[in-house]
């Protein structure tokens, strides 16, 4: 079984003997609590990116310190140093290493190029990784069925 199925089974262990309607009420209540807790966590983030993306991003900053760059034109940079060179297009948010293209999170080369171009690396990150999008994803409320608080 997958982790998600196991988690759901554990969550519902005490509700398995309920009638279907009661079981669905338990599921809805758990989902509502989970949704609200996730919204609270998202709103508490102080960094521009989600926590997991910030954790992935930090090591790239450290690696970028030992790289050198050559500006080829206003938006394209050749970055050397480390195991792999990269040619970064700041405007199109691409790099020949393909890490930036696939992850939509600036690779080491893109971080160096952005620094050289005086561009915030956070402007190069996919908006889907930002705190703003994370908060927006959980902005709606899950109401309990039959709740009078949301009915007109």
**Strand residue content:** 5-15%
User: What structural class is derived from the secondary structure elements?
Assistant: alpha+beta
As laid out across the biggest beta sheet, the strand order is 1-2-3-4
What fraction, in percent, of the residue positions are helical?
40-55%
Major sheet: size, sense and barrel closure? 4 strands, antiparallel
CA-based shape? elongated
Helix and strand element order: HHHEEEEHHH
**N-to-C CA distance:** 42 Å
Tally of helical segments: 6
Mean pLDDT across all residues, rounded? Answer: 86
Unreliable stretches, pLDDT < 50, 5 or more residues?
none
Alpha-carbon Rg, integer: 22 Å
Please supply descriptive tags for the structure shown above.
10% strand; 6 helices; alpha+beta; 46% helix
Outline the structure in words.
- By secondary structure, the protein is an alpha+beta fold.
- The chain is 46% helix and 10% strand.
- The chain contains six helices and four strands, in the order H-H-H-E-E-E-E-H-H-H.
- It has helices at residues 3-11, 20-44, 51-64, 99-103, 108-117, 131-137, and strands spanning 68-71, 76-80, 86-89, 94-95.
- It has a four-stranded antiparallel sheet.
- A hairpin with a 4-residue loop joins strand 3 and strand 4.
- Helix 3 (51-64) crosses helix 5.
- It is elongated.
- The mean pLDDT is 86.
Q: Can I get a quick summary?
A:
By secondary structure, the protein is α+β, with helices and mostly antiparallel strands. 46% of the residues lie in helices and 10% in strands. Strands 1-2-3-4 form a 4-stranded antiparallel beta sheet.
């Amino acid at each position: 079984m997958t982790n998600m199925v196991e988690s759901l089974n554990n969550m519902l262990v005490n509700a398995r003997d309920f009638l279907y309607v009661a079981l669905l009420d338990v599921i809805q209540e758990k989902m509502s609590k989970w949704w609200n807790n996730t919204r609270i966590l998202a709103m508490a983030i102080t960094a521009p990116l989600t926590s997991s993306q910030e954790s992935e991003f930090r090591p790239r900053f450290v690696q970028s310190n030992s790289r050198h760059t050559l500006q080829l034109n206003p938006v394209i940079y050749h970055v050397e140093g480390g195991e792999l060179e990269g040619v970064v297009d700041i405007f199109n948010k691409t790099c020949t290493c393909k890490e930036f293209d696939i992850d939509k999170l600036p690779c080491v080369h893109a971080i160096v190029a952005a620094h050289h171009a005086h561009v915030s690396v956070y402007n190069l990150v996919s908006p889907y990784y930002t705190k703003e999008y994370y908060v927006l994803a959980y902005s709606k409320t899950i109401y309990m069925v039959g709740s009078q608080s949301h009915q007109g």
